[in-house]
Each structure stands twice: as C-alpha cells, then as structure tokens.
Amino acid sequence: LGGDNFAQDFLQACNERRAWHGAKPLELNSQISRDAQSWAEHLVKLGTLKHSDTKLGENIWAQRGPPQATAWYKEVDNYDFSKAGHQERTGHFTQLVWRSSTEVGVGKASDGKGLIVIVAQFSPAGNITNRGYHERNVLPKEN
C-alpha cells in the first residue's frame, strides 16, 4: 500500500476483508478523505497519535517503512465471536468490517524520516456498544 494509488489500494484491501465477513464494499468519499488527510498531516506534525473529534469511526496507524493499512485486520485474532458486544484490543478490526459503515476516507502523511501515519474515517461510525450492535455488524469470517 504505497505509491500514487494508495487510496484505491487501501479501499480494495478493506473491501476484500469486509467481504470475508459478509459486509458490503465501502465507497471512497472524497470529503472524508480530505478530512482524514488533514488529520494525518496534523498527527505527523504533533509527533503523536490521538483520535480527532470527528463523529465518524476512526482508525489510526503509524509505523516506519511501507504502510500496511490492513494491519488493523490482525485484531481479528483477539475477537471472540461467541461473546456478545465490545471486546478489548479489537476496535480497529471491528470498525474495518462493521456492516453498517458504507463510506470511508483515508489519508496518509509522512515526516520525511520514515514515519508514516494513516488515518481512515468510516461513515457511519461503527463500534456502537449498545446491546446487539456488535452481533449484527461484526460477523464471523465466511468459508
């Protein structure tokens, strides 16, 4: 996930993983992408990671080296589908595959020294902790 087609490559990788869990493909939203890009650039300047005040779902990733936005999916290993509701260390995964989310915007920024920050914002937001929401929106991987 590098180069000029980052947003499209990111979208394709997200939608592939969503399909594994019975979620419809996300559509790339240009306004949300502009907002995500601004936040990624802001975080690089701050030199720290923190969530914005957006009302959208938000995943943030930082690393040195080539970006791997799909690393959020690895949290699936921490998710117990037999338990109901929110679970620790799974929020990036659950937002990624959240069935009710229909749009995403993504931004990527670098400090020029190898640090890359990726911000993805999802609409409508996922990870709603009300009873029954996780069960309806985070489905086991289909075979």
From TrEMBL:
Gene3D superfamilies in the record: CAP (3.40.33.10)
An annotated GO cellular component: extracellular region
InterPro entries: Allrgn_V5/Tpx1_CS (IPR018244), CAP_dom (IPR014044), CAP_sf (IPR035940), CRISP-related (IPR001283), SCP_GAPR1-like (IPR034113)
PROSITE patterns: CRISP_1 (PS01009)
Name of one Pfam family that matches: CAP
Boundaries of every SCP domain copy: 5-130
The name this protein goes by in its record: SCP domain-containing protein
